[in-house]
Design goal:
The protein is an alpha+beta fold. Helices cover 12% and strands 31% of the residues. It has helices at residues 3-18, 27-30, 172-175, 247-261, and strands at 31-35, 40-43, 48-53, 59-63, 70-77, 86-93, 102-108, 117-123, 132-134, 145-151, 155-160, 163-169, 186-193, 213-224, 262-265. The longest helix is centred in the N-terminal third of the chain and has 16 residues, at 3-18. It is globular, with a radius of gyration of 19 Å.
Length: 314
């Protein structure tokens, strides 16, 4: 690809991915605390907020509004050191019940020196068990990184620093697999103790001997439809997340992340040896063909979408 064409592609991808994202607001405009009392702290006029967890309790908050489709961004910096037994969340959920919907980003802590596990899942009509887990190509405790959920009637896309890591497509009509498309959901964030299962299946417990632990959130962006605005979800011109197309470069990046950093996949045949993988696993996440002649098969030349014009820093 010529340098001119590459520059045009980089510019197009950058504009496409960033178009329509609302300016970040402060905490009290969009959220309310759910529990934790003083363990929630607001900084920088409410644009930066922290959650702390100690031996007695964690903390959490949720959005004031419910949303039906959209793009949801949150910058997060995770608790450093020994985070075993803890879970840090950023997810969407309808009211809890036997048929609730949910789209998860959860970070499962670990002992010092071991990486966090990024856990993703989808619930629809109360049915989940669609986990994929990843390790990251950076230390999420050293700086803020952006985590994104894009949810539209066609697919769910999880992204880290604008790099797609997973796609879950709506195949309900063709395969009968439930997809979350009718229940409005709120944004939830929390930092809590789950040492009965979070680290090595509960074998490693949380250690509070060094005091409390803290995670940080900032610069949230919500570009989403309110449930009563029936024309919003069909506004493809105004909603870049509605018909998002990752293109070849984005799918190369997705493939690279999954090959290098995915550590668990519910579609793996070994996880369901009796009946075989679930039906939706027949549907490929890669909707564009791979680059037949990548310059570097181990790390495709895909632009860093947070820093246009630069190659990603692996």
């Amino acid at each position: 690809m010529s340098s001119c064409k590459l520059s045009i592609t980089v510019l197009f991808l950058t504009l496409f991915m960033m178009a329509g994202i609302a300016a970040s607001a402060n905490f009290w405009e969009d959220f309310e605390q759910t529990y934790g009392d003083q363990r929630l702290q607001l900084l920088d006029g409410g644009k930066h907020f922290t959650l702390s967890q100690d031996a007695n309790s964690g903390a959490g908050f949720k959005s004031k509004n419910e949303y039906l489709f959209g793009r949801f961004d949150m910058d997060m910096k995770l608790a450093p050191g020994n985070s075993a037994g803890t879970v840090t969340t950023f997810y969407l959920s309808s009211p809890q019940g036997h048929e609730h919907d949910e789209i998860d980003i959860e970070f499962l802590g670990n002992s010092s020196g071991s990486p966090y596990t990024l856990h993703t899942n989808v619930f629809s009509k109360g049915k989940g068990n669609k986990e994929q887990q990843f390790h990251l190509w950076f230390d999420p405790t050293q700086d803020f990184h952006n985590y994104t959920i894009i949810w539209n009637p066609h697919r769910i896309i999880w992204m880290v620093d604008n790099s797609p890591i997973r796609i879950f497509s709506n195949v309900e009509a063709s395969l009968g697999v439930p997809y979350p498309h009718s229940k409005p959901m709120r944004i939830y964030c929390s930092f809590w103790n789950a040492d009965d299962w979070a680290t090595q299946g509960g074998k490693v417990k949380a250690d509070w001997s060094q005091g409390s632990k803290t995670v940080s959130y900032k610069d949230h962006k919500i570009n989403a439809c309110l449930p009563w605005d029936q024309g919003c979800a069909s506004n493809t011109a105004g909603n870049s997340w509605q018909n998002i197309d990752l293109g070849r470069l984005g799918h190369d990046r997705l493939r690279w992340v999954q090959e290098k950093y995915r550590v668990s996949n519910y579609c793996d045949p070994s996880k369901s040896p009796q009946g075989g993988p679930p039906r939706e696993c027949m549907h490929s996440e890669f909707q564009s063909p791979p680059n037949p002649n990548p310059a570097n098969p181990g790390a495709p030349n895909i632009p860093d979408l947070k820093n246009p014009g630069n190659k990603p820093k692996y």
